Amino acid sequence: MKSFFSTNLLMASPTEVRKGKVLNYQGNPHLVLDVQHRTQGRQAGFMQVTMRNLNTGASTNTKIRTTDSVEILHTDVAKLEFSYIDADGYHFMDPETFEDLILEDSIVEDAKDFLVETQTYSILRVDDKPISIDLPASIEMKVTESAEGVKGDTASNVQKPATLETGLTIQVPLFIKEGETIKVNTADRSYGGRA
Fold it and tell me: Which of 12, 66, 87, 91 sits a CA distance of 20 to 30 A from 72?
């Protein structure tokens, strides 16, 4: 089977596999999420590796014997500023070179609800090819639509829906008004406080 990436491959021992590395596994780039070294009595040890296919998003858990070799792909992270969306895709700009990079919907898929103009994002690249967007823990977003809180409603933890500038709708406390900027936790899409 031909490798997905033909350049900048580093053949390595499975013991060099670490969380955050990208492996060429079954012809596709896989981000290592977790690694555990295991041994079985007198037999050769193995690495229990949990990884995510960067093309499909599917996770897999596999054993790699320590006597095998693995292909570790060259990766780098580019800090790019989100500009706009059009028919070609999602436009990001390098703030130093002003070069425009267009990402396809499949790469942006999980992050699209958090893309705010002029915000900087980390783009993971494998062999200079954009693979995924690494979102920060929280993003500041403006509330564009939210119903007024009901006067006299003093019960704690009462929330209402609010639509944010990207179209994402989340639950917020009653005191949040249209036009306010709030923090949104990207992991669970929850309200994280006023900005």
Answer: 91
